[in-house]
Every structure is written in structure tokens, then in C-alpha cells.
Design brief:
Elements (H helix, E strand, L loop, with lengths): L1 H39 L7 E8 L4 E7 L6 E6 L5 E3 L4 H6 L6
Antiparallel strand pairs: 1-2, 2-3, 3-4
Length: 102
């Protein structure tokens, strides 16, 4: 019975490491996108990403950038090329995000 606990604990530990590193990776990605949007808007206000959804088979992200007391700004971010489109009038946003339901 004691020999059974070692593989069970090892599997749980590995699963925790995998899912934990994925959560950290997503948080870093969101912070990077928020920084890029702030640079694009030429502001030092820190905002946050909300309503994030995956498009184009996981290669793109659509969402809203929220700042205090200001309306949300829609954006599209391509995860491979790292290109950013800010605003609903941006061509990349219309091509990739406008088709998906909000």
C-alpha cells in the first residue's frame, strides 16, 4: 500500500506544476498586453484586461482594456506576431473580433 502513495503524490505534484505554470504564463501575457496598450495610448495609467477570448484557433486574442473612470477600449492581439490593434475601428480588430459574439 505504501508503494502506491509515491506515484500518486508524484502525479499530483507534476499536475500542480503544469497548471501552476500555465496560470503564471497567462498572467504575464495579460500584463504584457496591458503594457503595450498603455504605450499605444501614451498613458501611464495602469489598466486591466477583461472579456478576453481566443480567436483564430488560438493565435489571436480579443478583449477590452479597462481604466478607471473611462470607457473600455476594445483590442486585438496576435500571439505569434505580437501585433496589436486598438479600437473597434482598427482593421485587424474588425477582421478578427467583430465576427465573434460579445
Amino acid at each position: 500500500m505504501h508503494n502506491l502513495w509515491i506515484p500518486v503524490v508524484a502525479i499530483l505534484l507534476i499536475a500542480g506544476l503544469i497548471f501552476g505554470s500555465q496560470a503564471v504564463s497567462d498572467a504575464k501575457r495579460d500584463a504584457h498586453i496591458a503594457t503595450r496598450i498603455a504605450e499605444h495610448l501614451e498613458t501611464h495609467d495602469k489598466g486591466e484586461i477583461s472579456h478576453l477570448r481566443t480567436v483564430n484557433k488560438g493565435y489571436g486574442l480579443c478583449g477590452d482594456y479597462l481604466r478607471d473612470d473611462r470607457p473600455a477600449i476594445a483590442f486585438y492581439y496576435h500571439t505569434v506576431t505580437k501585433k496589436l490593434a486598438v479600437g473597434t475601428n482598427a482593421t485587424r480588430y474588425r477582421e478578427n473580433c467583430a465576427r465573434t459574439a460579445r
